[in-house]
Amino acid sequence: MNKLYGESLSMRMTRTSLGARPLIQIAFMIFFPVFLFLFSSCQHTPQKAEVPGGGQASSGPAQPAGGNVQQFFATDFERLMQAGRESMNNGNFDAALQSFRSAAALEPNNYAAPHWAGHALINMGRFEESIAAFQQSNALREVAANHDMIGRILVEHLHRPTEGLQSIKRAYALDPNDPIILYDLAAAYLRIGSWDPALQAARTGLEKNPSDEVKKLLQECIVDVHLGRGEYAEACALLGQEALIRLRFGQDPAGMKVFFASKGGPADLAGIQANDLIVSLNGKSLAGTDMDFFVAAVDEIGFGSVARLKVFRDGSFMDFNVPVGVTPDLPERVRQARHNAGAQSAATAVPPSIRIDRLGLVPPVVKAGSKFDLRIEFTVNDSRTGGEKIRASAAYEIAEQGKTLFEQRPVEVEALNGRKTLRVEHITAGAKGYYVIKVSIRSGQAATEKNLPLVIE
User: Fold this and answer.
1) Is 387 helix (H, G, I), strand (E, B) or coil?
2) CA distances from 23 to 31, 170, 218, 368 (A)
3) Cis peptide, bond prior to residue 52, ω within 30 of zero
């Protein structure tokens, strides 16, 4: 296996900018894939691993015996590479990328710098640039890890599984004994529905003495083969009563971003698709939460129950009832959940409502010809949404003795469902007098109005 200052070039980085937590954390800050199966019993904690060449080590930079990092990394190139890895370990991917690019400028023929730059770019969500970095590394020295990472990006992030499969096949040809590559190979076959090759790759990976974490992932691939074939009894026998919906996802500020749903699993049968954004679970907003929260929430719902997911897709919100857990009668449970969802929606739908909480003037005393602010606080409640931003419009007019002197046309405003929204209008006062400001707020078919006296001195 290729080594880089004692580190395996088959390292895997987590896509942390989307929030996918590490499944494995090997020596020298080596992380495993962006994928996250939703199974409640697995604790994704850092693990110790065998260092190439023997011995045990935990995560973090290596400390050679009888010296320190500064003494060991004697050249500017080596110091920049170490600084980049430390920045990645701290989650500062911009700084890491800069360090790796500076190292590449010092030694443009060294394949390690662009390889690590590729990992930094993955964590920044710049997938096409990451592929280019791994290709640049391969042009200097072809290694299996470069092909494997290119394939993984194509399969999982860019949704080009056929193209990604070819890259992973090349990685396997270069290193047929790496169980991580075999896992990626199985996952790529799963994405294109090639069940037999996926099963073969997973079983071969299990023969390569994988770590416990990789072993679990390979076993999950075998479960996915059974689900894809519709062999629910076999999948159930392997999984038991785990509270899962078979999603692979990452974290987004507004909720959970779906990488993909396992073919034939609960989420897939219910209609969840790649790139869906899950914004609420059983009516609870997922904005600002992390993946642990989502995993725990599904686990709390429990095996055999139904998870109600609100999804944002193609500019619209959609509701899905997803059975939790795999059982031999899973397709029937999905049909029943869909039927119950329609009945419940018809019975419990509540029209949206709007209220104006407060109107105010700043400053409270308005002088003729001066500028002042009209502050409008309002709340929109819509039971059809789960906490996400919804569209509203705000308008006002100024009247004197029932005659409209000025009218501000409706302005579109983004309101957070169930929470106060502040709208500020900047106005120039006219002549002295007694006026009325009439404010109106509308969202869909719901609307409300409220008046505020305006005295201009």
Assistant:
1) coil
2) 7, 24, 13, 66
3) no
Residue 216: the pLDDT is 93
Distance separating alpha carbons of residues 118 and 15, to the nearest angstrom: 12
Q: Could you give the CA distance from residue 239 to residue 39 in angstroms, rounded to a whole number?
A: 9
192-207: average pLDDT? 96
Evaluate if pTM is beyond 0.90.
no
How many other CB atoms are there within 10 angstroms of residue 173's CB atom?
11
Determine, yes or no, domain membership for 233: no
At 436, which CATH number? 2.60.40.640
| Domain identity same for 43 and 119 | yes
Domain end (from 225, 249, 271): 225
Query: Domain containing 320 — which CATH number?
Result: 2.30.42.10
Q: How far apart are CA 10 and CA 386, in angstroms?
A: 42
208 DSSP 8-state letter: T
- DSSP class of residue 303 equals T
Characterize the bridge pairing of strands 389-400 and 371-381: unpaired
Give the end of a domain, one of 225, 254, 274. Answer: 225
Mean pLDDT of the chain: 81
pLDDT tens track for 105-150 = 999 999 999 999 999 999 998 999 999 999 999 999 999 999 999 9
**Whether residues 400 and 385 fall in one domain:** yes
Max Cα–Cα distance, the chain, nearest Å: 90
In a shared domain, residues 267 and 389:
no
Domain count, the chain: 3
DSSP-derived 3-state class of residue 54? coil
Whether 16 and 131 share a structural domain: yes
Is the domain of 14 the same as that of 139? Answer: yes
Distance of alpha carbon 297 from alpha carbon 439, whole angstroms: 41
At 339-355, the pLDDT tens digits run 776 555 444 445 678 88
**Residue 140 sits in the same domain as residue 20:** yes
Tens of pLDDT, residues 202-235: 999 999 999 999 999 999 999 999 999 999 999 9
| Tokens (6 digits) for 35 | 């994928």
Same domain, yes or no: 368 and 442: yes
- Write out the two tokens for 72: 């060991």
* CA gap 128, 157 in Å, rounded: 10
Q: Is 415 helix (H, G, I), strand (E, B) or coil?
A: strand
**Enclosing domain of residue 98:** 3-225
How many Å apart are CA 123 and CA 210, to the nearest integer?
25
pLDDT of 455 reads 86
Nearest to 26 by CA among 69, 3, 64, 60: 60
